[in-house]
Design goal:
The chain is an alpha+beta fold. The protein has helices at residues 4-15, 162-169, 175-185, 190-196, 203-215, 219-229, 237-249, 253-269, 278-284, and strands at 26-29, 35-42, 47-54, 59-62, 74-79, 91-103, 109-121, 127-132, 138-141, 144-147, 152-153. Helices cover 35% and strands 25% of the residues. The protein starts with a helix and ends with a helix.
């Protein structure tokens, strides 16, 4: 279980006076009738456990990342209100708290939690981090968010694109550390990050990101990326091998064999049979 006290303190800092006693879903309608829907409010933790973006074209969950370990106690709660919607209804400020239960050296269960301030584009569902939770204490000045410390945040100038994300993590030699850093940058969930930076324009970068995630054991998140890339990059041969390796690691051997076969056939067609890793032949037999 999460530590109730620590989460409530974090949320009360910038949402004092806001009441969700009726526990009904909160729907903030913005630009072109797109909406942000907060559901499954948890009074113990002081936030909504399910956040959905909806527009005429598509919809997806926000802050929903696959867990590396089954049964792990971790999660995200978020809060907002109609007063945090910009005047043009294109952006809304959201307070997010990440929490995870851990066990210390003495066997005691402890909770690690950290609160942040985000901004969501109601045009696309793209989420960008403004900063620490204190940045959520502020107001809209035109279409720029001004914190109580006097700092301005402009959505178009925020975010970390895929190429910059790779450059910031490539120097990390530990595979787990690199994967964890990349996963932290996908805090909003893969569909939302794709809304910020469309896969079709960043195929090579996304393939590298997924590969590094898989190296650190984050195969579920890696597969979310591969599943977006495979339909739009059918001629990218290494992508087939990378997807096959992650599927194999996840125990989905039949699905993996399908991609191993496609990879093998593509390599043979290019006259590169000697470059095919031995594991491919072993897993196809």
């Amino acid at each position: 279980m999460f530590n109730r006290y620590s989460l409530l303190i974090l949320f009360s800092a910038s949402l004092a006076g806001v009441s969700y006693a009726d526990a009904q879903p909160l729907k903030i309608i913005g630009y072109n009738e797109s909406a942000l829907i907060f559901d499954k409010y948890n009074e113990d933790f002081g936030g909504w456990g399910d956040v959905q973006y909806r527009s005429e074209k598509y919809g997806f969950s926000l802050y929903s990342l696959p867990k590396k370990l089954e049964g792990s106690e971790e999660g995200v709660v978020a809060s907002s209100d109609i007063n945090r919607l910009s005047a043009d209804k294109k952006y809304v400020v959201v307070q997010r708290t990440n929490a995870a239960e851990m066990v210390d050296g003495d066997g005691n269960e402890i909770v690690s939690s950290q609160a942040y301030c985000d901004m969501v584009s109601l045009e696309t569902g793209c989420v960008e981090n403004i900063g620490a939770v204190q940045q959520c204490d502020g107001q809209w000045v035109g279409n720029k968010w001004k914190s109580s410390q006097g700092e301005f945040f402009e959505f178009s100038k925020g975010g970390v694109p895929p190429r910059k994300l790779i450059s910031e993590t490539i120097g990390l030699t530990e595979k787990d550390s690199r994967a964890n850093t990349l996963k932290d940058s996908f805090f909003m969930g893969a569909p939302s990050y794709f809304a910020c930076y469309p896969p079709g324009k960043n195929i090579s970068e996304y393939n590298d990101i997924a590969f590094y995630l898989a190296q650190g054991g984050e195969h579920l998140l890696a597969m979310q990326i591969y599943n977006y890339l495979l339909p739009i990059a059918e001629d990218r041969i290494p992508l087939k091998l990378n997807a096959a390796d992650s599927l194999w690691a996840l125990g989905r051997h039949e699905d993996a064999r399908s991609y191993y076969a496609k990879y093998r056939d593509a390599m043979i067609k290019k006259g590169l049979v000697n470059k095919i890793p031995e594991r491919v032949f072993g897993r196809l037999n």
